Amino acid sequence: MEKLKERIVIAGLTAGFGEIGFARSRVLNQDIEFMADWISKERYADMNWLARNFERRGTPPEWVRTIIVAVKPYHPLEWNADEKRYSAFADGDDYHAAISAMLSGLLKEINTVGGRAKTCVDTSAIFEKAWAKEAGLGFIGKNKIFVSEKFGPFVLLGLVLTDLELPADEKKSNLNCGNCRLCIDRCPTSALDEFGLDVRRCISWMTIEKKSELSEEEKIIVGNRIFGCDECLLACPWSKKSLPSRRPTHLAISKRKPRMNTDKY
Ligand code: SF4
Ligand code: SF4
Question: Which of 47, 112, 245, 248 is most enclosed, with most CB atoms within 10 A?
Answer without folding.
Answer: 245
